[in-house]
Amino acid sequence: MIEKSQSTTYQLSTPVQYLKGVGPKLSEKLKGLGLGTIEDLLHYYPRAWEDRRQLHSISELQPELVMTFKGTIRSVHFLETKTKIGIVSAAIEDGTGALLCKWIRKLSYRYDVFYSFKKDLKPGISILVNGKIIKDFAGATMMVNEYEVLAQSEENLIHIGRIVPLYPGTEGITSKFLRTIVYRALLCVQVTDPTPKIIQGHYYLMPLDSAFRKIHFPKNFEEKEEARKRLAFQEFFYFQTVMNLVKQKRKISKSSSYIIKKHLLTPFKEKCGFEFTPSQKKVIREIFNDLLSDRPMNRLLQGDVGSGKTIVALSAILLACENKLQAALMAPTEILAEQHTITIKHFLKSLPVNLGLLTSSTKKSKREKLLKECAEGSLDLVIGTHALLEKEVQFKKCGLVVIDEQHRFGVKHRLLLSKKNPIPDVLVMTATPIPRTLAQCLYGDLDVSLINELPPGRQKIETLWKKEQEAYEIVKAHIRKNNQAYIVYPLVDESDKIELKSAIKEFQKLKNETFKGISLGLLHGQMKGSQKESVMKDFYSGKFSILVTTTIIEVGIDVPNATVMVIENAERFGLATLHQLRGRIGRGKNASVCIVIANPQSEESKKRIEIFLKNQNGFQLAEADLAIRGPGEIFGTSQHGYPNFKIADFSLDQELLVPAQKAAREILEKDPSLLKKEHSVLREELRKIFSKTWIWATIA
């Protein structure tokens, strides 16, 4: 246990260079790890912990195992080789035997290295040594990982004889050095806990200084986990407090008002040709209640692939149009924006709704016309990509903003579009299933709606793992029945760095050899917008039987006659992407099959493929993907304005999300702007953590 120093001299804000053993030169290297202050150092959590509590005698040491023993140095030898390698050899004995121990170091810092060894390793001293035993013709040798010289008192061992923290280092900064300075910092720092005392008591949180000591130097693994949970809760609590502050700031009256007139909604519903599912109806009611209220809507609509989110969004758009308001629909890719335009035009046929498509590929003359109509208000609905964010795009009165595939946009994009006109209603949609608790955390400033059922008649998709030749035979069988197919590759073109198949190269091979005589089209992200649009139209019309492509077709593509999909190098994709790709088929009346061709090189990628084969429920797949990969890779949180949680783990700590949310609301109910004296430290901490993100800008 770390006992606090009697003379506490450092604050959390103290520069790390003032710690004993650091100084100006090493502090510059520490800054490269993001460690500028004592507080940064305490939040630099171990990447792992190694149990070095069990001591062995030399006679018990076994080859190829990492073990720890205690002995007395009998002799030491230092050698500098011609190849600039420094070798330190020490003969150590403990009463049960003797063992040669070796340290091997590069000599770029040879004087520093030999100085420290010569200072520590002297005949007659007692020492704890940790390392691996190597046995060869010359006998047994321990290649030492770490050692600790024993003073008269062994109470404050740092590197051996305890559960030892292991830290990610860099050149010139070892894990052992980091362990030493973290230990010294914990001895002499005054820790102020920003979490209000009422929350600490209500949720039985251990003191923050205790959590720091136990996460870095725990007595046992149970204590380490208890401290980790405490620190994870704090990260979630901070984030939820800020997200609720954002939400509160948006509770202002909006300029638009709605009345359900039904002169567009009723004919739209009649022309759909199908009955809305109970889940769709429930979500539409939630959205309409938001629109009819005097507060701006900020809602996330989640729905699995093919669940009918577009119909729900279109219902909201038509309610805006009925009330003489404009609407904007933003999609992440030109292909998806074009697909939305085709689909919505079909549903709005003969209805008096003027819509336009605006992307970076829109021709100048058409663009100028659209911009003019948009500014004048004669354009009821504009569909587009990031081009809608440009300053020149102005609305006369934009009442509703719909953002599709939210996870592909940065949060700043949402903020920019929602500021195009004073206080519009905002609906964001995603077909990437997100576990509900995670959605509430990542999108904590939004209300969450869920479409949790598929429309009747959607075909179940058979999913198979086949070899390439078998897969292509299945494709040919579907083509003979006048159906169409996708073949998806992970790369657009060849790469010198990774051995994966590419769409461009394989297209020629498939066209000239494997599927000779069958019409093939090629689609990828490096093509011009007009080329992509032309290829998709040709595939939709049946001109191509097979579309060779990349993950550009992951979302929004709807070709009912496509009944088979082959995914090459499927081990390279996450479960969410695989599920989205599979969702491009099974959209018509015929049975469909998704075939993965995979060569997994790890247990993780093999497990991912096996889960995909067995499960078609997007939300269950999302839970599995979260457990395997974590939210950063799945949703790109680091790219989208969310904090990089240092210790909280969504796959391990989901049970902490709801209490952290409740704790944040408790504080803000009593002090909506955190202006009370007892919350000043919390507010300052939030400002410090979130000052570089979009979030603080919306509330500061």
CATH class of the domain at 461-615: Alpha Beta
Radius of gyration (CA) equals 31 Å
User: What is the oligomeric state here?
Assistant: single chain
* CATH homologous superfamily heading of the domain at 461-615: P-loop containing nucleotide triphosphate hydrolases
Numbering strands along the chain, what is their spatial order in the largest sheet?
Answer: 12-13-11-14-15-10-16
CATH architectural group of the domain at 461-615? 3-Layer(aba) Sandwich
Taken from the alpha-carbon principal axes, the silhouette is globular
Distance between the termini: 41 Å
State the share of residues found in helices, binned by percent. 25-40%
CATH fold label of the domain at 461-615? Rossmann fold
- List unreliable stretches of 5+ residues: 495-499, 633-641
Number of strands: 22
Which structural class is indicated by helix and strand composition?
Answer: alpha/beta
Kindly report the average pLDDT value.
85
Biggest sheet character: 7 strands, parallel
Q: How many H/I helices?
A: 24
Tell me the layout of helices and strands.
Blueprint: E1 10-11, H1 23-31, H2 38-42, E2 48-51, E3 66-80, E4 85-93, E5 98-106, H3 110-120, E6 126-136, E7 139-149, E8 163-166, H4 175-188, E9 189-190, H5 197-202, H6 208-216, H7 221-249, H8 265-272, H9 278-292, E10 298-303, H10 309-322, E11 326-330, H11 334-347, E12 355-358, H12 364-376, E13 381-384, E14 398-403, H13 411-418, E15 425-430, H14 436-442, E16 447-451, E17 461-465, H15 468-480, E18 484-488, H16 503-514, E19 520-523, H17 529-541, E20 546-549, E21 562-568, H18 575-582, E22 592-597, H19 603-614, H20 618-629, H21 631-635, H22 654-670, H23 680-690, H24 694-699
Parallel strand pairs: 1-9, 5-7, 10-15, 10-16, 11-13, 11-14, 12-13, 14-15, 17-22, 18-20, 18-21, 19-20, 21-22
Antiparallel strand pairs: 2-8, 3-4, 3-6, 4-5, 6-7
Helix pairs in contact: 4-6, 6-7, 7-22, 9-10, 19-20
